Amino acid sequence: MVHLNVAGKTKCVMKTKTTKTTFGQVRKKALAYWLKETNRKLHVNDVVRHSFECHWQNNYTSEDCHNSLYCSYGESNTLITDWLRDDRFDDYTFKTPKYNSRLYRHYVIFFLIVSEILVDFVDLHKLLDNPDTKKTRKALSIQGHQFDVHSLFCFINSICKHKMGDAEDMKHYHCLNHHIQYAFNDDEKPVKATINVNNLTTINISDLTGEEMLEVPTVMSIIEQLVHCYKYTSDFLYNNYKNVSDKLKPFEKGVKSPEMEPELINE
Description:
Layout: E1 2-6, E2 9-13, H1 23-38, H2 52-59, E3 66-67, H3 68-76, H4 78-85, H5 97-128, H6 133-140, H7 149-161, H8 173-176, E4 182-184, E5 194-195, E6 213-216, H9 219-248, E7 252-253
Parallel strand pairs: 4-6, 5-6
Antiparallel strand pairs: 1-2, 3-7
């Protein structure tokens, strides 16, 4: 409470307290959305019996066969759940200097996982539909989203993976990091100029001052893109499976699925 003297009279004014966003708030919301939209259930390993992958296994595989591709998607994409369940940094706030860099490194792990999952979706659709990488990335993108798949790949590749670059392409993390600061969109939109997912490929290095911040996309925006890839793939298989079934046969074997753990039967 603040006491103000106005025209000789003292007035009491309640001072609003600024609430800082914590990583835990972001994480929990994204985890709930991911589980709901992909029909996964939490366990030591995700229960995927009602997931997209099991739906594909049951409907888009030759009779009495098991498709390793679908099963492997279900298993390996649980890495997203693993990351979203990690509550070690739940109390960290994005603007606190000692937490800012630590959260960024944690996000890098997330982006690397996301990149590999997106590569799998792109490669699948290049096999089944269109061998052109850019056209496939465009088809998998959410129309009107904060970024498209191609821009996201460029961002992850330059900022999280191939950080050195070369003399002809200096738009990489090691070339931009003059004690760079991180602006997380999961906190609030930055007010300073930033290097971000949508301008990384078009910025002119010579125009930069070295004081620009690196803008980090929201976790939810990434999860939404992954969910869209699942739904796009599901729709594609529903409409085109008969035409592409031969291309999926190399992934099929006549093997049985393992017995489900007893406590998961009713999940």
